[in-house]
Amino acid sequence: MLKKTSLLFIFLLFVSLLKAQVQLGDSMMLDYDTPKEYEIGGITVSGVQFLDEGVLLTLTGLAVGDKIKVPGDKITQAIENLWKQGLLTDIKVRAVKITGGKIFLDFQLQERPRLSKFTFEGIRRGEADKLREKLQLVKGKVLTENLIQSTKNQVQKYFIEKGFLFTEVNIETERDTTAPNSELMRIRISNKRRIKIHDINITGNHEFSDRKIKRKMKGTKSKGFLKFVTSKYNAEAFEEDKQKITEAYQSKGFRDARVVRDSVYRYNHKSVNIDMTIDEGHKYYFRNITWVGNTKYSSTQLGQILGINKGDVYNQKKLDEGLSLNQNGRDVSSLYMDDGYLFFQVNPVEVQVEGDSIDMEMRVYEGKQAVINHVTVKGNTKTNDKVILREIRTQPGQLFSRSDIIRTQRELAQLGYFDQEKLAVNPKPNPADGTVDIEYVVDERPSDQLELSGGWGAGQVVGTLGLKFSNFSARNIFNKKSYTPLPSGDGQQLSLRFQSNGIQYQSYNASFTEPWLGGKKPNSLTFSVYRSVQTNGLKRSNENRADIQITGVSVGLGRRLKWPDDYFNIYHEVSLQHYELNNYTTSFLFSNGSSNNLNFQQTISRNSVDGFIWIRSGSQISFTVQATPPFSLFNNIDYTTASDQVKYRWIEYHKWKFSGSWFKSLGSKFVVNARTNFGFLGFYNKKIGQSPFERFYLGGDGLSGFSLDGREIIALRGYENNTITPRNNVTYIGGTAYDKFTLELRFPVSLNPQATIYTLGFIEGGNNWSRFRDFNPYDMKRSAGVGFRIFLPMFGLLGLDWGYGFDKVNNLPGVQGGHFHFTIGQQF
């Protein structure tokens, strides 16, 4: 077919050239049997409107003063040169004058029509807009057969990739009377319906059953057992699935396995069948593995890292991971590159295949150790260079280390100032002098937050307004030019928070954190002050006014540890709260007087997660001990007869908490998050007993209510707020021991830093006890549900969950069941 088409094209071209030559000199007599030589006295072009005449004359290859024969090859070549451009529909050459041995030529040309506009018929406006971007057809483009066919092919490919396998495209053109030499293009599309897969037929497979092979095909599914459940056909997904089949065979030793034939054909007007033939080949095993060119590490050491032994089934994926593609960084390339060998290469070569055994030779090129020369940062428009550079693990003068680069990217993501999906690193090696420059690329994202939240607690609605500036700059407070709207760029944190429901309750909080105290080491300083007032709604001048006023201050110091590894942190804090009661009879054991809570807190934590909002891997573990001095041991008070006001003038307790959160990517976009939490509140003196302060309140969204006595409000979805909490005859008194377990499956909808969205499904359970001796981790209130999270830089994390509680709560019928939980400004 191709041969016939080529011959036809040559014939038509010859006829066109011949026609142009015959028309040469219609105004005068020329002897075609006896060509004569002339000197070109002049060349003109006529009939063109859009094309440049000077360019066309250049394309002919002819010039004034040239000697040509008429008729002759040079005229023929000139015409052929013009035809090649595909811009003309007709070419005529006339000799307008012959005088004194000179000939004057005029090329009379007819331009191809140009596109004035194009329209789509048979599809929605949204699809038409997408096609306009893809086709990139512009007004004034020359309408050639190639352009029309190319447009048709692109439109068909677009819909076939979407599963409309039987899409028909017809393109028509017609003259546009509103513009000279222009035509309209109408693209008529009939995509009918999205094609589904009726059945997948597989032959040639013995190692894997049809069912196992189909399970590997994630994007290509046939009709389900319900007969009407089918999968949409997608050509691109089918190609990916064939590769997955090959990889599955190779992981079992069938290194030559491949899909040798496949066909997709119509089953009926709405579905197709797929036939595949697999050639499995032979199953192979590794035999001898030798190393050549290695001097830094012995062959034994490299073999241990590779992790492949003689007799193991041949596995290409395992071989690649052992050499350079292990996500955990335990591979041969990482071993070298973490010791400066940036130019390291290893090339696995099959030196002998005998029967079912393969001998491998690992050819190593170690190269020189590369020293880091310059380290630069690009893309930061708000954050100061020093804030970024102090987190970078690769310093000038050090040996190149891939693991240090990976760790640096993780540290930059943890700052929360940059889009973690766009963090990049550009090593620029210089083999001539054995150095490497490293450029880190960041992309600023909004990191300040506005918190607006509402909740129901203590019989009233409580609203919250909070401002969090996570990249604050205290040193520029007096620099007017730096207010945009506040000084920023030094990585400090300033938080301001206000809670109120009106005259009955107000709370004010302010905190400041310097993450690098002194600027040389990652030692943090945190200072916070807070004050809250709750009343019965009466003014101060009213003698029946009842109120409680709480004033507190805390100072904390944090430090990064290097042991057991440098993911660990330790944090120390001293805190003092002063309670002042006036005729206050709610929630406290006495109504008049004061109480003080002086406590020391120490937290040891480890954080190795790889992101700030959307986390794919790593863990967060924290263990906290919070304790007051044992005041009762230092005085002579008889607490068996002392009043509650005396007992709790100086509150005493010890509090222990543990939390753990683990993230694991499932290889696709899904991420599993498992969490566990424990808490225990103890006492020193049996005569005083458990402290009424610092207790645990479990259930609901974890936001409702407010803390007057150091209570911790903990979410457990599927139950009403605070309902999984010990009670007396009047109200909830809080628990002294609790546990909670959560398992979530997350899926990202959008990782855009302006609106990060993911959905989740969860199961969780927990309980709360008034005495530690009643603690039973198997006695849980269980729930399950679904939800979504959206992170907006200005507002933080917002979420909506629907949870169903399965277990009854004593003396509280109906608090379990289906519940919606809406949260603002709270991260779960």
Structure description:
- The chain is of the alpha+beta class and 828 residues long.
- Helix content is 17%, strand content 41%.
- The chain contains 13 helices and 35 strands.
- The strands form 7 sheets. A 16-stranded antiparallel sheet has the order 18-19-20-21-22-23-24-25-26-27-28-31-32-33-34-35, with no helix packed on it. Strands 2-1-4-3 form a 4-stranded mixed sheet. A 4-stranded mixed sheet has the order 9-8-11-10, covered by helices on one side.
- A hairpin with a 2-residue loop joins β10 and β11.
- α1 packs across α3.
- The radius of gyration is 39 Å and the shape is elongated.
- The relative contact order is 0.05.
- About 4% of the residues have low confidence.
Entry summary:
This protein has 828 residues and is of the alpha+beta class.
